[in-house]
């Protein structure tokens, strides 16, 4: 029955060590192969040992590479379409015997039973319910796959295989439509396959097949083999598989999607006609009803079994299909005679009125030129009228915005200022801001919105647009322009000009890139501030110099009236620029104060000015003192304390100063970079500025001088002091009290008396430098 040939290792015919062959008849019902090791007293696991077994219908040429590779090449092992295994139950000779002898051992249950020629039987699912396991009770079920998976093989050799047919699982509708591709031939039926499919017609519902003459011993390359269950055709799919009216060698089979009527199929969720432009057709053979199939509707072509598979046919592309003018329609076409055209509204051919064509064309051309000339004239006239109207509107806005007054104010200033300050047109500013694009907004000030713009000369500017058009707001705008046009100072924002041709007046001044001091100090409280202690002293000094210039050195004294960190801008080198003069007031030189409506920002507002309404230069001094405290503590003028309550920074700072605990609220970065005397000096200047009575506060010129002296004394720590600190021989400032009690008490008394001590109170002098030294130091810091 079988012969075992042992062969030598090293390749060649399978007749030595490493390869053995067992030969048995094709009709042999079953066999078992056991592989054991000889001369082994203790069983050893077959770890790292490759064992491969396969069926072949011709002698196999052994190669060690076959053991080392993941796959065995079908061309070398001689696999063929006849090399197959099928599952057969052999405890009973046939289905009838199995059903009658012992129903408890009968395997098929509610499924179909098929006899095997050599004895035994196997089970299949019946009818259209061909999916499922026929060996499990009630597991046969109909599962129709409407959507094939991607990248399915759709051809085998020269045969195209459209859906619902397919090779791989997921590529066919049900297993009844499964085909096999072997050696570039499309096979149909349960192995061993007897028929080859040469063509599949979806429109006609036909399979063109050839009957295989013999089991050829050819090289097979299987793309998909799946023989489980009832994956064969028979009369479930095609009609005429074993009918006498078909040739033994060649046949044409009719097939159906399911054995249902069209009326029943349309109610079934497994209805196969998925395309919107498809229809159901019954399949019959003589008087026998086989089932239904799908076909694209007239005027459409494609695959009716998939979504949107049927597409419109352009009948106008078919040669000799129309002797007139062809118009393609969805699902059909219209052929109109040459003297007619198709009307899509009426959906019919309409006579083409081409009479007097030459006259109509000439009339149309003449009319066209006339209309064109009339339109051009109207456009030119409208533009002139529009320009005239715009001039009137802009002139009206110019007068409303106090343009005549502003021209007089600008022209009355010095010639250098006149050359640098100009009145811009609205068109120029619209172009500079891209029509005031919201993305160009830099911020919202107390008196308007600020946009970033680029002028025609490539200068980057800030354009301030007032919020309101009330007369009081216009007066503030004119006031700001007139004030800025008189100021020439490196630490005051530079005015380029203004625009009065809109309902809302606009102000154009230099663009400051680094934002406001408020943003730099309070942007991210957890991050290290960009301003070092030296930068903070310089910013305070430059702001004080600008305010001192406004109070005493300008042509007419100017009170800012809204001094705050948000109105102190920083350019790309952190140079200070005082801005926002919308609330400022100019007074004559012989005046010391002026009574006004109280304006300002809460937290910076001078309490004396708030209660009396009398605006003096000392009001700006108080607000500047708040900025000094901000620079020292890096806290906002109104902040939340540890209890979550709002706290006024000035009161909080003065209270800490009086309790000798001011170092607890100083910014840690300042403590690290500044000396104790420098912190005391800055705190002392701030306390003087924050006195309740304006008469007890210093002038801005005095504040500027004190800050100049502080900056002059500022020096980096000596090298040996850095080495001592690095080795821990000196204690950090935070671990030591601000001063001895006697020193702190003396400092507090000096603050009350208006005396600021730079050295311990044992000194009797109120300052460390002579008048000559102060003048020499101040000369090093030009404004």
From TrEMBL:
| Topology relative to the membrane | Single-pass type I membrane protein
Give the highest taxon in the source lineage: Eukaryota
Give the matching CDD domains.
EGF_CA (cd00054), STKc_IRAK (cd14066)
Chain intervals for the UniProt region annotation (Disordered): 714-735
Question: Where, by residue number, does the polypeptide cross the bilayer?
Answer: 357-382
Concerning Pfam families, the annotation shows: GUB_WAK_bind, PK_Tyr_Ser-Thr
Compositional bias of type Basic and acidic residues: which residue ranges?
Answer: 719-730
What the entry lists under PROSITE patterns is as follows: EGF_CA (PS01187), PROTEIN_KINASE_ATP (PS00107), PROTEIN_KINASE_DOM (PS50011), PROTEIN_KINASE_ST (PS00108)
Question: Which cellular compartments is it found in?
Answer: Membrane
- What SUPFAM superfamilies does the database record attribute to this sequence? Growth factor receptor domain, Protein kinase-like (PK-like)
Alphabetized, the UniProt keywords read:
ATP-binding, Disulfide bond, EGF-like domain, Glycoprotein, Kinase, Membrane, Nucleotide-binding, Serine/threonine-protein kinase, Signal, Transferase, Transmembrane, Transmembrane helix
Family matches, as PANTHER family: CALCIUM BINDING EGF DOMAIN CONTAINING PROTEIN, EXPRESSED, WALL-ASSOCIATED RECEPTOR KINASE-LIKE 21
Q: What is this protein called?
A: Protein kinase domain-containing protein
Q: Which organism is it from?
A: Triticum aestivum
Lineage, opening ranks: Eukaryota, Viridiplantae, Streptophyta, Embryophyta, Tracheophyta
